[in-house]
Every structure is written in C-alpha cells, then in structure tokens.
Amino acid sequence: MQIPDPRQRIGVINALRAFAALAVAWGHFVGGQGKYLGLSGKYGYLGVDIFFVISGFVIPWSLYRSQYVLRDYPKFLLKRNVRLYPPYLASIAITILATNFVLVPVFHVPHMTVTGRDLLLHLGYLNDLLHVPWVNIAYWTLAIEFQWYLLVGLALPLFAGKGNLLRFVGASAMIALFFAFPHNNRLIFHHLPVFLIGVFVFQYRARLIGLGEMLGLIAVVCFAIHRPLGWIVTVVAVATGLLIALSTFHSHAMDRVGDVSYSLYLIHLPIGVGVIGCLSHWLPYASRYIGLLDVIGVAASAWAAWILYQIIEKPSQNMSSAIRFTHRKPPPASQAVAAVGAD
After folding, report:
1. 222 in a domain, yes or no?
2. Residue 3 is assigned to a structural domain of this protein
3. Do residues 272 and 301 lie in contact, with contact meaning Cβ atoms separated by under 8 Å?
4. Disulfide: which of 4, 268, 306, 338 matches 25 by Cβ 3.0-4.6 Å?
C-alpha cells in the first residue's frame, strides 16, 4: 500500500479546529442573552460536528501513516489516553474549583459535590450511559470521541483495505449501525455518518479512492442521513469534509488557536462563564454591553487554554508521540513530524 508522506501538513485542519472550538464557546456564552446575541450563537453547537468530521479523518490518517495493524490496538488506545486524559482531568479540577470558589460565592448557586463514583464514571466516559450528570456539560462529546477510538482501531483494516469490497463492507457496517441505533445521540452510532464523511476524505487523501468516488460516497451518505440528522448537520459535515479534502488554506493565527482548541473546549465553560458572570455582577449597566463581556469571556478562556496547553496538554502530546508501534522500524527523524498533530 502507498503510505502518504508523513511530512505533509493539512493546514486547514487547525483552522477548522479553531473555528469549531470558538463557535461552541460563543454559542454557550450568548445563549439566552437576547434576540440578536442569541441568534449569533444559535448554531454554535455545529462546532461539535466539525470536530467529529475532523476526528473521522485524522485518526484513520494517523494510523495509516503509522502502518497500524490490529495487534497495535492496545498501544493505540494507550497513546490516545496519554494524549487526552491529563488535560481532561485538569479541566475537571478547574471546573469544580471555579464553581465552588467563584460562582457559588457570587451567585449563591448550590455547591458542586463530586463523589468517588462520579469521578470513576468520568474516567470511563460512562456518565450518559448510567444517567449521571457530567461535571461539565461539554464532556458528553468526549465520550462520543472515545467510543470512536474504540471502534476505528478495530475497523481500520476495513477502512484502509486494498480492495473495494473491504471498504464497502466497512462503510456499510457503519451506516447499518446508525440505522440500528438511530435515536440515542449519546452513543457513537447516532453520529457515525458524520465521522464516516471524514473517513471518505481519509481514503481520498491516502489515494485509496479517487475524487469522483469520494464525492459519490459522500452523496450517498447525505441522502441516507439528511432526514434523521437534519440538513444543517449534513451540510456542515460535508463542507468540513470537502475543506479537508480540497482546501490549501493555512493561517498562522488560526494555527495557534487550533493548537489549543482541545484545552479551550475543555475549560471554556468554567473560565468563560465565571469571567462573564463576575463582570456582569460587578459592573454597572452590564446588560447594555453584555456582548463585550462575552468577547472578554472568550479571550479569557483562550488565555487560560494556552496556559493549560503549555503546562499539561503539550507535554501529554509529546509523551503520546513517544509511544510507538514497536514491530517496525521508526521513520527517519526528518519524517517524524506528525502531519496534522493527531499523535
């Protein structure tokens, strides 16, 4: 099989990450703040679907470049957990502290109490399955992503198969699972077609299929899912996939935001809501310029995310990259740079 150049960088991915994280944050901050502000963030939730398409592309792409085989599955899961758990755990602590020491004194809301069982459920991303509230409502998407990692590590031999039949079986199985479990949006099955668009882009980028075949597969998925998921999710997912497949856009500014997008997603609620809430409580006539306070909340969240990235996320990323699939020789040092920062 032909392995893509590991040095190849797809610049638009970080821009999409940045846009998605900012859209989600803005949607959370302006919700319920009046007609026009509320409308500006009405579709911020679609940032989640952008993240899902990116993950549908990046994870198979990264594994394919690494010449992944099924016996690498445990090490693959280890790499993902080393990469993602430390910032996640730090964000849980930040959320609890911000709630109990900022929001409770200012707004007299109930204290957040977290039991050992609650923490264990968070570690396994099991809260929705057992109907236990998340410490941070944004965490539900992390559970979907984790389920995707469990699935894609097993399904990659189908997605990256040399023959059309294998790839057809893989895609058909994903669509069948979607229709078998269509209503629970807290399980990966409900979101599989969105991830699958990213998989088709991976197959195109890896030269397993041609452009016409990629577009045809995406069209078939759109026809199958536009009613269950809605046209707006379908359009956003397709647009994201096509940008990854075809765009050469690159922005250094968006790169910087994209680098911290995971940390920003994790802590935008405790930091941003805390900042906006305190300023609106302390400043006179705050309702007249609440939009400005929302912008300050986004900026504060981004600044805090940069700190979290530097102190915790980046070292975790480096530790994850140091874990290699040991049954093959490592690539030359000049080719060891990750193409999209997924490792």
Report:
1. yes
2. no
3. yes
4. 268
Tens-digit pLDDT profile for residues 208-235: 999 999 999 999 999 888 888 899 999 9
Q: Is residue 5 part of a domain?
A: no
Q: Rounded distance, CA 83 to CA 315, Å?
A: 9
User: Cβ distance 83 to 317 under 8 Å?
Assistant: yes
pLDDT at 38 over 70: yes
Please name which of 27, 60, 50, 55 lies closest in space to residue 237, comparing C-alpha atoms. Answer: 50
Tell me how many degrees the CA angle 251-254-256 measures, rounded to the nearest 5.
110
Q: Residues with Cβ < 8 Å from 281, sequence gap 6 or more?
A: 106, 107
- The end-to-end CA distance of the chain, in Å, is 21
Q: Are 53 and 237 in contact (CB under 8 A)?
A: yes
* Per-residue pLDDT, 327: 62
d(CA 38, CA 27): 8
Angle at CA of residue 183, ends 182 and 188, nearest 5°: 65
Domain count along the chain = 1
Q: Domain range spanning residue 17?
A: 12-335
Q: Which residue has the higher pLDDT, 237 or 109?
A: 237
Residue 108, phi-psi category: left (phi > 0), alpha (psi -120 to 50), beta (remainder): left
Residue 225 has a pLDDT of 85
**What are 77-98's pLDDT values in tens digits?**
999 999 999 999 999 999 999 9
